[in-house]
Amino acid sequence: MKPAINQVDVAIIGGGITGTALFYELARRGDAGRVVLLEKYPTLASVNSDGHNNSQTLHCGDIETNYTLEKALQVRQAAQQVIDYAEALPANERERLILTYPKMVLGVGERECEQLVQRFDTFRYHFPEMELLDAEGIAALEPKVVAGRRERIVALATRDHYSAVDFQRLAHSFVAQARHLQPRFELRLASPVTAIREEERGFQLTTAAEQITARAVVVCAGGHSLLYAQQMGYGKEYACLPVAGSFYFTPPLLNGKVYTVQNDKLPFAAVHGDPDLLTPGVTRFGPTALVLPLLERRHWGTLLEFLQVTRPELAVLKVLGGLLKEPEVRAYMLRNLLYEVPGVGKRLFLQEARKIVPSLQLGQLQFARGIGGIRPVMIDKVEQRLRLGEAQIDPGNGILFNMTPSPGATSCLANARRDAERIVSYL
Q1: N or C: which end of the chain has fewer CB within 10 A?
Q2: Is the pLDDT of residue 4 over 80?
Q3: Residues 265, 329: contact at Cβ < 8 Å?
Q4: Distances (CA, A) of 289 to 15, 247, 266, 340, 366
Q5: 107 contact partners, CB below 8 Å, separation of at least 6
Q6: What pLDDT, in 10s, does the model give residues 257-293?
Q7: Any residues with CB less than 8 A from the CB of 376 and at least 6 apart, and which?
Q8: Considering Cα of 103, then 132, then 143, then 112, what sign does the dihedral take?
C-alpha cells in the first residue's frame, strides 16, 4: 500500500529549538499557508535542545570573551527576542523555562585580569548593567570563587538578568503557541524523513507513513542537515567535526553562572560552572570537548551518517592537521580525551574546575553520566578552516539547511524571523 500524499506549503524538518522557533514564527506571521513540522523522535527537542545536552545558557554577549563588540550586540538583540517571548507568557509558565541568575566571566592572573579590564572599558557604554568586580565584589556574589585563592582575580558580571533557559520547555512552548495561533499547522512526531526529492514545483518528502509535497522546506537537524543537503547535491564543500561536551557534577557551590576567559588558540568552549536546571541541588562544571565520529551523542547508529558527511579527504585532513600542529591544541585535545577515562579523568578535570572554585575537592566531583550533547562544527574544505558558529546552506530554490551550534539556541527566534522572511518571500 502506497503512503498517503499530503500537500503543504512549508515543511520543517527537525523539532529542536530551531525548528520549533520557525514553526512559531510562521504561525505568528500568518502568511505561510499550511505548515508541517516533522520530528523523527517521539518527543520534541530530545537531542541537543534537551537541557541535559547543552549549557542551559541564554547568551547575551556580555560575558562571552570570544565575541567582538559587534557580535556581542547582535547576540544581545537575539537574546532579547527570547526574553520578550517569555515575558509575554503567564508567570507560572515563564518561571519554568527562563530563570534569573547572577553571571560573570572570571579573569585569573594578571594577563586575564588586564584583558577583562580593557574589555570593560570597551563594552561598558553598550552594556550599562555590566560591572567590573574585584575579589571583594566577586565574594559578595560567589564566595566559593574567592575562598582559598591567591592569584589576582577580577570579573565582568551582571546581577539580575535572565541567563538560564530550559530550551526543551521553550521548544514545547513554541509549538503550543503556534498551534493556538494557527490550528491548521501540523506536528508529526516519530516521523523521520528518509528522503527529500526536488520536483518541478517544490519538494517531495518521504516518511514511513506518508509522502509530503511542500513548496518550501527548512531543515533544522544539526549535523543531519548537512547530510540531507549533500544527499541532494548541496554543501559538498563542507564536512562536519562533531565535538561532544561532557560535564561533572558537584554539591551546590555556585549561586549563578561563572564562565572563564576563552583561549583564543582553542576553537572550543571554555569551562564554566553553574546550578543545573534539571538536577536540583548540584553545580555542573563543563563542558569538556571531545571529537567523536557521531552526529548524535550516544547514538552509535549515526556513525555511518558521520562517515557520509566527513570522509578522510585531503582537505579535511589538512584542517585537522593544522589544528594538531599547535602544541596547545594537541595538549588540550589529549586532556579532554582523558577527562572521559574513569579515575584519571576526574583528577585531571579537578585542576580545570579549581580555576573557578579553588577549594574544590576530588571527592566532590562526579562524572555526569548520560549528560552532554554534540556540537556539529563545520569544516570548510575550500578555505581549509573550521567554520565556527552558525552555518546555513541556501541554494536559492526554496530549501534551507541550518546547522546551528552555539549561540543557535539563544538566536532561535532571530534566525526564525530571518528564515521565515526568506521562505515567505520565496512562496
Answers
A1: N
A2: no
A3: yes
A4: 25, 10, 10, 10, 17
A5: 113, 115, 116, 153, 154, 155, 261
A6: 999 999 877 767 789 999 999 999 999 999 999 999 9
A7: 222, 223, 226, 240, 241, 242, 295, 403, 405
A8: positive
Taking the C-alpha atoms of residue 58 and residue 98, their distance in angstroms, rounded to an integer, is: 9
Candidates 23, 272, 286; CA nearest to 163 is 272
Tell how strand 131-133 and strand 98-108 pair up.
Answer: unpaired
CB 424 within 8 A of CB 218: no
* Backbone angles phi and psi of 213, in degrees to 5: -100, 130
CA neighbours closer than 13 Å in the CB half-sphere of residue 295: 22
- Number of neighbours of residue 145 by Cβ within 10 angstroms: 26
Question: Could you give the residue range(s) of every CATH 3.50.50.60 domain in the chain?
Answer: 1-56+166-237+389-427
Backbone angles phi and psi of 68, in degrees to 5:
-70, 170
CATH 3.30.390.10 at 1-56+166-237+389-427, yes or no: no
What whole-number distance in Å separates Cα of residue 278 and Cα of residue 97? Answer: 11
Give 30-56 as a 3 state SS string: CCCCCEEEECCCCCCCCCCCCHHHCCC
Q: Give the strand order in the sheet containing 374-380.
A: 290-291, 238-244, 374-380, 385-387
For residue 3, the 8-state DSSP code is P
* 38-82 pLDDT, tens digit each: 999 999 999 999 999 999 999 999 999 989 999 999 999 999 999
Contact 182, 22 (CB under 8 A): no
Helices vs strands, H then E, count in the chain:
13, 20
User: 269: which 3 cell numbers?
Assistant: 568552549
* In the block, residue with C-alpha cell 576526574: 346
* Contact assessment for residue 275 and residue 252, using Cβ atoms and an 8 Å cutoff: yes
Asked if 162 and 58 touch (Cβ cutoff 8 Å), the reply is yes
- To the nearest whole percent, how much of the chain has pLDDT over 70? 99
